[in-house]
Specification:
CATH superfamily: Galactose-binding domain-like
Shape: globular
Number of domains: 1
Helix content: 10-25%
CATH topology: Jelly Rolls
Largest sheet: 9 strands, mixed
CATH class: Mainly Beta
Strand content: 25-35%
Radius of gyration: 22 Å
Structural class: mainly beta
Number of helices: 2
Order of helices and strands: HEEEHEEEEEEEEEE
Amino acid sequence: MYHKVNILLIARFLQLITIVLLTVGGVFAQTCTGSLGDPVVNVAFGTGSGFTSLPTAASGASTTYNNVSSVCPNDGNYSVTNSTSGCFGNSWFTLTEDHTPGDVNVRMAIYNASYTVGEFYRQTVSGLCGSTTYEFAAWMANILTSTACSSAGIDPNLTFRIASLSGTLLGSYSTGNIAESNTLTWKQYGFVFTTPASQTQVILKIINNAPGGCGNDLALDDITFRPCGPTISVNANPVFVKAAQ
């Protein structure tokens, strides 16, 4: 009996620590490790051949970058397309699909970062629940090859920000430098955030920190903002009931 009580006390203590960590500050540089709910925001950039723009692909979204109809946008520009090829003397990887293997004619955003800090993505989200944990995340790939720019290319470096409508910063997360690799590599970046008790609207931003120049070229896909709850598990242990004598 004493052993069982100790286990219960330890379990409750760990649960309390988890609650405190999720509510104090409300921000962690990691994606959700529990159960994800249906997305409040899900920007997949649409399907089809040819080009489109961020506001067309995601209603209410915006960017400070110039939209162009090119698979190889220059500095300060972006395109929303389903492929890239032969860009800048093959210093970029060739992309034949977005981050999800097997997708056909599914678009992504290709950014050639500006020499000044800019917003890759901005969107106002309404109808949120207060005191609720959400995950803000996106899939990204450094599209510069490892040998381009004399193997000294500028690495993309982004910040995810969540702010109130008045501009008060509620949470942020930095990706750090997203280094080049020998093969095209998609990774998911993001963090979990708990809304203040009365917060039902927020502004989501993904901001470029690194300068333009040779490098800082990025593919962006599947931007999501969705509830993050505790892990759901099923107890498969059998229950034995003693038969009446």
